[in-house]
Amino acid sequence: MAVTQSNAVTTCKLLIGGDWVDSSATEFSEVFNPSTGEVIAKVPVCKGDDVDRAVQAAHQAFLEWREVPIVERARVMFRFKHLLEENYEEIARCVTREHGKTIAEARASVQRGIEVVEFACGIPSLIMGESMENIARNVDCETIRHPIGVCVGITPFNFPAMVPLWMYPVAITCGNSFVLKPSEKVPLASMLIAEMLIKAGLPKGVFNVVHGGKEAVDALLTHKLVKAVSFVGSTPIAKYIYEMGTKNGKRVQSAGGAKNHIIIMPDADMKQTVQALQASAFGCAGERCMAGSLALPVGDAADQLVPLLVESAAKMKVGRTDNGDGADMGPVITSQHLKHVRGMIEKGEAEGANIALDGRKVNVADAGNGYFIGPTVIDKAKPDMSVVKDEIFGPVLSVVRCNTIEDAIAVGNDCEFGNGAVIFTNDGNAARQFKRYFNAGMIGINVGVPAPMAWFPFTGWNNSFFGDLHIQGREGIQFYTQQKMTMTRWISPSADKFQDPIWKAKGK
Ligand code: NAD
């Protein structure tokens, strides 16, 4: 059992060596249902001893798992995929309950996670090395990809199922073992999914789960048996993980925060653009690292765009997501985060921007203690304002009106982040210039959220990523494997006299 139940509040266990066990921690943090503010689980704040138990178990399991033929490893992923599909609705409901996104958004995120498992099912054909014969007389050369050992995943609150699934299906199928430290704000989906990995027949100890915050993370980053660390979260922590992990000799891929720019050219189809912009900025209550958070309308595009967007976004139904599918937008994750988002809107107002749509006024009658804020549009912001420069991570879209596409690209290129950027236009040249010169790793052309599917890497730039090999796609496989090159001289006294029988038969 992943949890113990008392008075409807579950206490999370750790998954170590294939068994759900109690933490030795005496401190617990709380998991909330953001729609109501009620506590739904307690999660142990693990320390080094729990982490050590998990890493030791993972290391022991790795020694066996790496010997399992890759097709058998992939078969576990096929079974895992079926179980995820069978339990799709339950996982989505768990995500909604602990995170607050709508059930439709939760389902979509689980689907994205399943696609990574589908990708992992194909790893046998993607992990193959290269070979060349006769690089010198009687000498052949080949590369083979080996697993690296115990890999670690440290994940954020905003995609409880999907982001962890970016990591361990690939790591495990490549022959590694794994220790996951999910966000202490949303540990439940990871534990539910872990049950499915166990049912899929994954040997004990190949996948482990620990909980907690900085202390658990530091123990993972410094443990001598940990070989690689995948991190997704905010930029200051991503930078810390990268520096601390690499200092301790680990391979690290560390994805950070974002501020994603959306350029709207005057020739764009405004109706379609408004729909896409609304979904991008306010979907998942703006708690997406690929959310469009800064609109850069060019020329007279703003005069058409802003009134249409305000009118449309004002109609969005903000409400509880845990009791049906009536809401278009749910709450943000915690009361502290709600305070942060509100504080950023106040800052924008104080700095002189115009609050064209004010989500602070939203009222959700049946959920007095939920963490709600409505869609907010901050118009006529200036490039040096905090609402333009800093990540808000809530349903807030700032608008900087620009004269030319060059001005708009310049605003974007001044930004410390570089996750995603989008242009809406019918002008091929504008799209091409934007694609070529915008300083971000994931580009959308008439696409609101250009988040790559599992077959492509999640290519953040600048302070949105620290490391070399990104998460997902072939780069993910490279990250979780190390290459070995073998050069072989085929020594045989008869080698020089050997005659190829085929050519000989043809009388050549
Ligand atoms: P966070 O950085 O607060 O936490 C992420 C993880 O780090 C959690 O597991 C947490 O327990 C751990 N952590 C927190 N403080 C720590 C510390 N001082 N030392 C060590 N570990 C620590 O992020 P969050 O609030 O959970 O998630 C939101 C952030 O994640 C946003 O900035 C968002 O842009 C980013 N994000 C980025 C991507 C991407 O692909 N680039 C994807 C999703 C989310």
Write up what this structure looks like.
The chain is an alpha/beta fold. The chain has 2 domains: 3-257 and 460-486, Aldehyde Dehydrogenase, Chain A, domain 1 (3-Layer(aba) Sandwich); 260-416 and 420-445, Aldehyde Dehydrogenase, Chain A, domain 2 (3-Layer(aba) Sandwich). Helix content is 38%, strand content 22%. The chain contains 17 helices and 22 strands. It has helices at residues 48-65, 70-86, 88-99, 103-121, 123-126, 162-173, 188-199, 214-222, 235-247, 270-282, 301-314, 335-350, 386-389, 405-413, 428-437, 473-479, 501-505, and strands at 3-6, 9-12, 14-16, 19-21, 28-33, 38-44, 131-136, 139-147, 150-154, 177-181, 207-209, 226-232, 251-255, 260-264, 292-297, 354-357, 376-379, 396-399, 420-424, 442-445, 465-466, 481-489. Strands 16-17-18-15-14-19-20 form a 7-stranded mixed β-sheet, sandwiched between helices. A 6-stranded mixed β-sheet has the order 11-10-9-12-13-21, sandwiched between helices. The longest helix has 19 residues, at 103-121.
